[in-house]
Structures are given as C-alpha cells and as structure tokens.
C-alpha cells in the first residue's frame, strides 16, 4: 500500500495522495446531478492545494468545459502546464495586465465600461479577440458591476469588435450559510440582470451563478434553471469537500489524503511536557510517536490538540500543539508502533476516517482551507487505486 515512489525518494516523510480517479468520479456525479449545465472547475490557489497543473490536466482529460482561476498569473501557469481548455480569470485585469488575456488566451472578467474599453484597446493592439465574462454585483463584497450600470457595460463590450461576450455571472455568498434558501435573494437579483441583458439582446451563452454549496440545494438549482443559467463553477465539490452541512444528495469522494511516516517512538516521563507552553505535563509515562508534520506543513494542524491521527488503523490522540516541523501523538493504546509506520492525518486507515470537514470544524477554518499545505508536503498523483502516475 505504501508508495513505491516514496520508497525510492527516501527523503519523503510527509505527503498528500491526490486521487485523480476520485476527481473524475466527482465530476461525473456533478454532471449527472446538473443535466444540461456546463461545468467549470475552479482551480485557484493551486487547485485548493491539490496542484493546479496535474488537476487542470486531469479535468481537461475528463472533459471539463473550462477552468476558473483568481488571477492572470494563475491562468498563465495553467497555459504553461498545457491546458488548452477555456480559462476564466475572476479578478478583472489591472491596467498593467491588459495585454495578458490576448497573449495567453485567458477569459477576462470585466466589471465596468472603462475596463472593457481598456481591454479592447489592448486586444486590438495584440490583434486578437478576447473573451469576456461580465460579473454582476448581487450583494456580495462589492464584486461585480452594479446592476444599474450593466446595460451600459454590455453596450461597451458589444461596441468593441475585439471583445467577445462569453458569459454573465455572479457569486452567491448566501449559499455558504446554514440556510436552505441562502443565496436565493441574490439569485433573484441576478435573474433581473439576466432579464435586462436578454431585453437588450445581449445575453451571452454562458450564464453562471452556482458554486459548490448550491449544487445540492434544489431551491437554488431550480431557481437558477428558471432564470436561464447554463453553467456552474465549482471547486470544493470537485475535490470532495463539503462547504455546508447536511446530507449530500451528490455523493462525492475526498480527493486528497495526507500522510506521514512516524519518525521516532519515544516516551514522556511523568512531569515531562508535550509543548512549549508547558501546559500539560504528562501525569504518567506516555509512549509517543513523533510525526514529521508541523505547523509549517499545515498551519491548521497546530490546532489539532485534542484531535487524533491514525496509526496502525487506530486513533492516536495528538499531544499538545504541533511544533514547526513535527507533532507528537499518544500511542499508549497502539502497541508496536515503529519508526516508518504510516500515519494518516486526513483520510482513511482501517475502519477510521478523518475528513477535511472534521478538521475544519475543530480548527475554525473553512473546509476548503484544510488542503492548503506547506511546500515540504510532496503531492503524489494516482489515476487509479493501484498505480501512481507522477510526483510533484
Ligand atoms: C472560489 C470561487 C468559486 C468556487 O467556489 P466553491 O465553493 O469552491 O465551489 C466560484 N466562483 C467564484 C467567483 C469564486 O471565487
């Protein structure tokens, strides 16, 4: 079960297994639950820590309709990684970045007529047509064109032959909250914007509003279909991470597991302490496993105190708080732990499973923040259960 690759690279002691097969299954399931909708995969922040290049290429192989990133630099990275699928950049281009969409065939977001005109000038100079998506502000963080300016912006895009209107979109903050109808009011505002674009004869082919937490809420998927949405953007769901509580009507598999090898087995004597704060002195002799995984490897893990990891198929309580590059686990109830044993920090071992959602709840983080790991944690990619493809 342990990776041959890791064995060869004897220096690898902490790694993340990225199951590209699970990624493909998640995409299939999402497609199945959203008939007729184009699916855009959001791979910003290095594909939520899963690796933008390998994940982007895998999604492209699986037939994703397009990819979404936060900024131009991430888009260029994907092009250099061999992605030919459409790429939408969420942040509108800065004045210094106006040439990049034309040069790298990146879809640009525009949120004002002035941005559209500046982008058109740069596209003309480059002699290329640039695809644009207009983002509409429906009440979230001031992102997007105010609805009152939408038709002027659409007119400015239509007046620029170097720009091709590809999409109209918004992002629903309410979908990330606990309420079944969260995001519905924003979606209704978006519906008015869609109607205004339609009335002006300028409704593009791609109309998108829903992201991961909205995809299993019939109230939102139904309303989106009614107002004419034709696409969804999802990140977390593709990675099998649930952003909101509730039973998943779409069964999604986690894509990332995080593992480390026990580096030492030692013991705390009565009165010894397990971390700098010297808070909890061991009341009794405590056998401990040292794991090469500290807060530099996953900042949230220093909040693991009170949590567990898995060794030999059993839960081992984390002792104290993690150090920069290691942490201690209490192995009193797990006999025969040896250096080199594989420990699971996120994922399954034996009958036990630790999910990103559990860690998020314990650490107060958003679930999508959990897979953002430090640079020491090597990522290993598998396309099926038996074979490893690449190491990054
Ligand atoms: C990050 C992001 C998404 C993806 O959100 P998930 O909840 O991960 O699906 C979609 N749209 C926009 C505009 C985003 O910034």
UniProtKB/TrEMBL annotation:
Annotated Gene Ontology cellular component terms: cytosol
This enzyme's EC code(s): 5.1.1.1
Enzymatic reactions: L-alanine = D-alanine
GO BP term (any one): D-alanine biosynthetic process
PROSITE patterns: ALANINE_RACEMASE
Enzyme class: isomerase
Residues with N6-(pyridoxal phosphate)lysine modification: 44
Family, per entry: Belongs to the alanine racemase family.
Protein name: alanine racemase
Native organism: Azospirillum brasilense
